[in-house]
Amino acid sequence: MKPDFRRVRFSGLCAIVLGLLCFAPDARADLTLDITRANPQPMPIAIPAFQGQGGDGQVGAQVTQVVSADLERSGLFKPLDPRAFIQDPAALVPVPRFADWKLINAQALVSGQVTAQPDGHLKIDFRLWDVLAGIQLIGFSYNTTATNWREIAHIISDQIYKRITGEDGYFNTRIVYVSESGPPQRRVKRLSIMDQDGFNNKALTDGRALVLTPRFSPAPGAQEITYLSYAQGVPQVFLFNIDTRQQEVLGQFPGMTFAPRFSPDGNKVIFSLSGGANSQIYTQDLRTRKVTQITSSAAIDTGPCYSPDGTQIAFESDRGGTQQIYVMNADGSNQHRISFSSGRYATPVWSPRGDLIAFTKQEGGNFSIGVMQPDGQRERILSNGFLVEGPTWAPNGRVLMYFKQTPSDASGRGDSTRLYSIDLTGSNEREVVTPQDGSDPAWSPLLQ
């Protein structure tokens, strides 16, 4: 029997491109949003309810809500109030009356329809229109199971995001994180998974063993995570298949293992292993189980993370006297420090685009999330607070998620711990609502 949290795959036909329609005299105009500029103005976009009969209309309204929420939460789009709409959404087919949408200052318009199929599947059509140019920009039709409408809504959001910004979206993704409950002295930590917008929240572990640092495999289509668990009394690295719920211990090591992450191709796991007063960085080939030591120093080397091309590794080390970020080649050669400002640096995470490394910084009593280039240049702080940790990148490298803890009183003891996302520019910080406290998020690749 399949576990109830398993994502329903597309059945039969996945997507058909709907014909491009051009009705304006100047069909060369192109609606775009330049997201390389700092704080671009959100684009006004009209998203009327997708049409349908009876229950199909209900699903259409739900799809519209998810698409509107996705785009609004990105900070790059401003969905217009449906009460301002002049044209009846039912009259958008085959072509909108563009003059009505210009009057309410819409630049983009989304129209769609949901139709039940004889075999019980749903057919969901959508089109994206350039209101000012009076042309269709893209149009797709999806066939899927009746329960899979939310995933189709996220895919539609990704299609709109990519057509308008020119970059891949990040909406059809999932987050694995540590769900926390109970008093500070008896904190229960479960591994949980949810859609990137906080919906479809499911527990993956029962909370009997402490779990930490879950990480998704970056391999396309992979539904595998690695994480740290104290299930057998000492910290060990586990592999967990989300679809089958099968898990296994990577190996029995003489010391304690920490901070596991996958290689970009998903064929290796890199982690640190403690021995005496220090810890070193190792890799393990998941096919042969061969373990290779990468660093050998008298310091604490930990928190390793591959560059997206797999040729380099960022890690944290106190070999220089304080905790700093270093970069080395994948074979351990050419180790060099890249962080030189005041404060302590930890948890380096390479951007999927390869252009930046995110980190946690502690200076005085303040924690921050920031980014710097792989050569250590152009450090920027994006968010700070009482305790801010654990950055993870969206697959398009435009958005970061992390957790933030607030103090409970003047003594500085921790209170609630919540997940937040923020744009790479440092703007649009938003809480990602979870049923209980959440920490240590890890972002999946785009779902296939």
From TrEMBL:
Pfam families for the chain: PD40, TolB_N
UniProt key word Plastid: no
Signal peptide interval: 1-29
InterPro entries tied to this protein: 6-blade_b-propeller_TolB-like (IPR011042), Tol-Pal_TolB (IPR014167), TolB_N (IPR007195), WD40 (IPR011659)
GO BP terms, alphabetized: cell division; protein import
GO cellular-component term (any): periplasmic space
Domain of life per record: Bacteria
Keyword field contains Cell division: yes
Alphabetized UniProt keyword annotations: Cell cycle, Cell division, Periplasm, Signal
Region spans: Disordered: 429-448
Compartments in which it is found: Periplasm
Domain TolB N-terminal: 31-136
Free-text function comment from the UniProt entry: Part of the Tol-Pal system, which plays a role in outer membrane invagination during cell division and is important for maintaining outer membrane integrity.
Family to which this protein belongs: Belongs to the TolB family.
Subunit structure: The Tol-Pal system is composed of five core proteins: the inner membrane proteins TolA, TolQ and TolR, the periplasmic protein TolB and the outer membrane protein Pal. They form a network linking the inner and outer membranes and the peptidoglycan layer.
Record protein name field: Tol-Pal system protein TolB
